[in-house]
Each structure stands twice: as structure tokens, then as C-alpha cells.
Amino acid sequence: MRKGQLPSLRWKTMKLKELLLVSSVLVAQIFCDQRHQPLINNRSFTIDYARNTFLKDGVPFRYISGSIHYFRVHPNHWEDRLKKIRSAGLNAIQVYVEWNSHEPEPGKFQFEGNQDLEHFLELAHKWGLLVILRPGPFIDAERDFGGLPFWLLQKNKQIKLRTKDPSFMKPVRSWFQVLFQRMKKHLYHNGGPIIMVQVENEYGSYGQQIGKCDTEYISQLRDLTREHLGQEVLLFATDGGGSIDSIRCSKVPGVYSTVDFGPTEDFKDRFYHQRLFEPHGPLVNSEFYTGWLDHWGYPHSQTPSTMVNSALDAMLEFGANVNLYMVHGGTSFGFGAGSNFPSFQVTPTSYDYDAPISEAGDLTPKFEDLKRVVAKYEYIPDAIQVRNSSKKAYGSIYLKPLGTIFDHVSNLTTLSTSTNKDPLTFEELGQAFGFVLYEHRIDHITTNPVQLEIQGLHDRGYVYVNEELQGILSRSESIFTIPITITKGQKLQILVENQGRICFGKDLNDFKGITSQVKLGNKVLNRWHMRSIPLSQVDHFKAAPPSLKTEFKSMSFWKGHIQISCPRSTPEDTFLSFKHWSKGLVFVNGFNLGRYWPRLGPQETLYLPGPLLKCGGNDILLLEQDETPCQHHKGSWLHCNIKSIDTPQLNGQTPSV
Ligand SMILES: *[C@@H]1O[C@H](CO)[C@@H](O)[C@H](O)[C@H]1NC(C)=O
Ligand SMILES: *[C@@H]1O[C@H](CO)[C@@H](O)[C@H](O)[C@H]1NC(C)=O
């Protein structure tokens, strides 16, 4: 259907509730013809309740938007991805703001580099994309702690997150003051691209789960947003379209309710749910799922393009506003990925999401189909030239051992070490991410073997006795006990990995490390020594001498090199393949690229954006947590390499459940 044409509707078969929806849409369609002759020449973005549509500059307007997270894309690629989104005819993007990356420490704000949100907004504006801003403070988005800063849990253990609890709202107020001060000039009526601002994020399902719909909290956020951004700004809420109770739970006056749902759901039914709370105004699906997220150890999610694009077509024909979640997923670099619960499931480094634009910025067949659907309703700016970026296989990267984590523990312990009767959590230690080494010297005679039990182990615990691995405790596998052999005078060491804080649901207060007592047999162990290993910087490895060890029975560091000659251009994107390695972290020129875990799958390669590489020598550092494929033979190392290849593998084998 071309712009301005009326949709071909089967009036006779239409049910009453559909008629209610559609008649409003038709009016909007008629007015759309006027989009090229603005009635007024000053900028405004509002809702016309009588005509059931948004108004941009006083003219009926419908958005077809796509979600993209600036914190999941290398800043040098922002413009490329935004251009690609615009080239499909989308007229808006929807963007989460991640509080924890902007305020990593209380009162210390970051808006540079990866956090340069304003630059991102300016680029969107430059390419003709409007912006739907989702400042949270909670965003979920499969990010650590749903985007909240970990230090909220440090300040008050009993904090009631996402409620009006002052120990939550006070830091929110100080953060929003800083954020909104920067956002104000980017509002549409101030000449920028931001047309709407979301209040909270799918709050209704949380309120339902905690058994209390704290609408006073939502009202406070609404008022706070208006206080900083002014009265004109259009505020909206998003809740699951499948649950009327959820929409009701977050409903406050002055905030427009929208719904979200995927391609397999009955869109008329879902919009009918929106209509129960917004009898007039535009129909909006704020998150229409183009794909879905993955978890380590579970099959790769894929949603067929035909399913996504035919459902989109139907919604657009119906006159709805749609945001595609995601149009480009990107990558959860470093320790950015969060976890789901009640079955503790960890999200991988890739956030490809099976989206139309792949993790590496490729225009997939789903993208081409999307463009064809959008072309029926919107102008496609054909003049924008976009294409897949070139990928390069830099070949094998040979690795040399740098020793075990115990060899380096004093260098890695950048925060102070602590001693306490009970084990302290990451949060109590003031540590956001990485590992904590818990040590206890056994001063009594034990049975042999003896059962070690840590019910509150968050999330993966490597159990050593005098630096010899005994076994692994795992929250995701519900393994909280193992038999070990230990004698009086020996050191029990538990190296605990934070695999990402819970990002969804009522169990959001997810403390990391050892969060309970530790029992050995029937005895509770007291007197613990804690060493923080945040791995926030790994520079000192440059100077580390090669280890002379020939066998590694605990976590170990490995160092390699990519030599890139690029006389004419900058280095190209590549994918690192960890085939035959187990589980760990990889740093490229000191940048934490993220977690690899090919043994569990489905992700087997890590996307390495070209801008992280430089012409000449590039440092690769691995922390392998489990087993390496390396074999020492007559003074050299065999099978000790990872590979740089030119295609991703996100759909690898996973354990059968
Ligand atoms: C700008 O728009 C507002 C309403 O959105 C209107 O009241 C005002 O008169 C307009 N100003 C100009 C100069 O067009
Ligand atoms: C771009 O990449 C996608 C995904 O890798 C592929 O399906 C598509 O064919 C590529 N397009 C071109 C023109 O090479």
C-alpha cells in the first residue's frame, strides 16, 4: 500500500472492537497526505486524541522505529548502523540509556567515548531519525542488573529497587538531573530528534511480581522528568500487551500507555488491551520482536523473516506505530551482559538477536524483506548508500602461557583486600564485576572426603585446595555442594565469578560472590580473606614474563598477537573463534571484548570490530577458566591457538536438556 491510499478492509467481517480501532486509523491515513506541507513551522510533537494519531508539527504522523543500543555498538560504527536503519525507511530509533555505564561510581558521571550519548543522538538527527528515549532508570535489556548501578546494593542491602524507597529515588534524582540536563536541547521542540520519553520500563510486570503496583513511584518519575524536561514533552509507558493487569499496574495520568508483543501474538487483541487504557490516541507496539535473546547452553534463537515481516505488514496496514526490537542488536562487550531468573540463565556476549541488521552490521535477508514492507508505507531514501562491511580472516593467533591466576593475584588485586568473619559479597567489597578470591585456612581435622556446601554461591565457584582445582560449583546448574579432600593447615580457596546480575523479575537484588555461610561437613567456616579481582584493566600483562610452567590446573592467562598490515585502510572487522577452548574472557589491546564459552554454546565466535584493532601489532590476552587445548612438547606449545575468521558462528551445539 502506498502512502495516502486507503487500506483494503473487509468491513463485513469486522468485529466491533476492530471497527473501533480501525475507524480511528482511517482518519489518520487521510491526514497523512499532508505530511509534506507542515501546517505550522515551529516544531511540536503531540497526540491528537480526536484523530487517534501522533502529530508532528501539527500533522498526523506515524513512526516505524527500530531499537538500537549505543552501548552495544562501537562508537566508530554508530553512524554506519544509523544510516542502515534509515536506509530501510525507518523514521525513528528507540534508545535505552544505561545508568550503570554513565555513573559507574556514585556522582562520577561518564559521557565520553562509548558513553557519548549526545553524539549518538546528533548522528541520529543528522540521518533523519527521530528518537524515542527510554531513560529507565531500570531498562532490563539483558544488561547487568537491568542497567542499574551495582553500588545501589552496596549503599543499602535492603533497598527496594524500582519503588519510591528514598534510598532508590535519591540516586535516581541526582542521575536524572545530570542526564536530563544533557537531553533537554535534544528534544524535538528544542530542535533535536527526541519525540517521546519513556517512564520506567515494563514496570507493570515487576509490580505484579512484587505484589505491589507502586504508582506513586511512577508518578514521581513522571514529575521528575517533567521538572527537568518541561511540560511539553510527550511521556509514555510500555507494558506487555498480553497482560491487562500489567498495563494497569503502571498506569498513571499524563503518561501514555503503549504495549509490546511479538509476531506470533494476535495484534488486534493486544491493541484492544491498549485501548482499554487509552480509548483514544495512536496505537503503539513499543517492542515488536524481530528475533529473541540467547542464553549460554540453550539453542540459538531464530525467528523466520516471513513471520516477522508479514506480522509487521499487517500492523502497519492497520495504522499502528511500531518499534522493532531489535533492528540491530550488537554486542554485550566486557561484563555488560545480564542474567535471567528464576532458572539462573546467563546471556552470552553476542546480542545479535537475529535482528535485520546483524551483530556485525550486515544487511541480512530479513533486512531486505523489512525494507520491502516499509516501502509500502514510507518513503525509502534510496540515495543513502549502505553495504556490508568487509570482514577479514587474520588467521591463527598463537598463544603463550603467562601463568595461572594465582601467579598474578597480587597484581590483579587492585582494590584493597579484606578479612571478615563471614564472606563478603562483591557489593560489600565495592566491586562491580569480575572475580573474588575467597580464602580460608582449615584449622581442624576433617573427614576425608568432606562435603563443601555453599547455598548462596553467585554464580560460579572454582574450588581449590592449595591452588589445586577440586571442582566447580555452579548456580546455573544448581550445584552448591561438592566433596573435597582437605587436611588441617591447608588453604581452601574459592574463586567466584560474577556471571552478570539478574536483569528481570522480582529477584533483582542479586548480590554476587558468596552470599551465605560456607559449610565444610557440619561446620560453618569463619574467618575469610577476600581478594577483589575486577579485571578492569590488564595493562601490567605487557610486562609479565612468560611462565615456565608446562601444565595448568587452574585458571590461566595466555598471550598472543595479531600483526596487521594496512597501508591504505584501517583494520577490518573479524570474528575470533575459540574452538577447542572452554570458557573465559578475551581482551584485545586491553579492551575487554567479552566472555567466550564455546563448550556450552550456542555462541562460538566473538565479533571483533575493526576499530578495536590497529595497524601493526595487536595484543590478545585470554583468561581461560577451564581447560585449554594447549600441549607442551619439547619446549614448545602445540594446538595453542585461537583463530581470526571472516564469518560468525552463533548457532553452535548446546548440551541436550
Ligand atoms: C508554535 O506552535 C504552538 C502550538 O504548538 C502555537 O501555539 C504557536 O502559535 C506556534 N508559533 C508559531 C510562530 O507558529
Ligand atoms: C550481507 O551479509 C548478510 C549476512 O551475512 C548476507 O546474508 C548478505 O547476502 C550479504 N549481502 C551482500 C550483498 O553480500
Q: Describe it for me?
A:
The chain has 657 residues and is α+β, with helices and mostly antiparallel strands. The protein has 13 helices and 36 strands. The protein has an eight-stranded parallel barrel with strand order 4-5-6-7-8-9-10-11, surrounded by five helices. Strands 16-27-17-23-20-21 form a six-stranded antiparallel β-sheet, with no helix packed on it. A five-stranded antiparallel β-sheet has the order 15-28-33-30-31. A hairpin with a 2-residue loop joins strand 25 (519-520) and strand 26. The radius of gyration is 26 Å and the shape is globular. Residues 1-16 and 26-40 have low confidence and may be disordered. The protein binds 2-acetamido-2-deoxy-beta-D-glucopyranose (2 copies). One 2-acetamido-2-deoxy-beta-D-glucopyranose is lined by residues 358, 362-365, 388.
> Distance between the terminal alpha carbons, to the nearest Å?
46 Å
Q: Which ligands occur here? A: 2-acetamido-2-deoxy-beta-D-glucopyranose
* Strand order of the biggest β-sheet: 4-5-6-7-8-9-10-11
Q: What's the total number of strands?
A: 36
Shape: globular
Share of helix, binned: 10-25%
Question: Pairing-aware structural class of the strands and helices?
Answer: alpha+beta
Strand content: 25-35%
Low-confidence stretches: 1-16, 26-40
Average pLDDT works out at 93
The gyration radius over C-alpha positions equals 26 Å
The major beta sheet can be summarized as: 8 strands, parallel, barrel
State the helix count. Answer: 13
